[in-house]
Design brief:
The protein is 23% helix and 35% strand. It has 138 residues and is an alpha+beta fold.
Length: 138
């Protein structure tokens, strides 16, 4: 089952055409990831480095944009785990307009797990692995 948040589309999110400017989708995705860490891992995303000695930089992104989002929409952002490798996590995000059955955008984002300091690949900590496995795509 996907982890999800609600995200309002605010004025700074839209471009001159009145729709969400595409880079803002990545802000929505990251907000879902931050909330996921706080609610599912029990460690705030910005505390993971300090408390667990790891960080999760994005190393791959692919996104399909299907429908525009507009100012005032209260969108649902879903995060699902595609896979948890030994040193990386592949996630799928979907963003839905209010009451829409089809996503406005779908993105696949791969996060590497690195040791900090040092920026060397390292094992995904068990606590984080378990949290992501709970939300594995069916």
């Amino acid at each position: 089952m996907a982890f999800s948040i609600r995200q309002p589309v605010r004025h700074p999110d839209v471009d001159r055409a009145g729709i969400v400017y595409f880079p803002r989708f990545y802000d929505f995705f990251h907000r879902a990831l931050e909330d996921f860490f706080g609610e599912e891992v029990g460690v705030g995303f910005w505390e993971v480095e300090e408390k667990m000695g790891v960080a999760f930089p994005t190393v791959h992104v692919e996104t399909d944009f299907a429908r525009p989002l507009q100012h005032g929409d209260l969108v649902r952002v879903e995060l699902e785990t595609e896979s948890v490798g030994s040193k990386s996590i592949a996630l799928r995000y979907r963003v839905y307009r209010p009451d829409a059955p089809e996503p406005a955008a779908v993105s696949r984002i791969v996060l590497a797990c690195i040791r900090v300091p040092g920026w060397e690949p390292t094992q995904v900590p068990e606590k984080i692995r378990v949290a992501f496995e709970k939300h594995r795509a069916g």
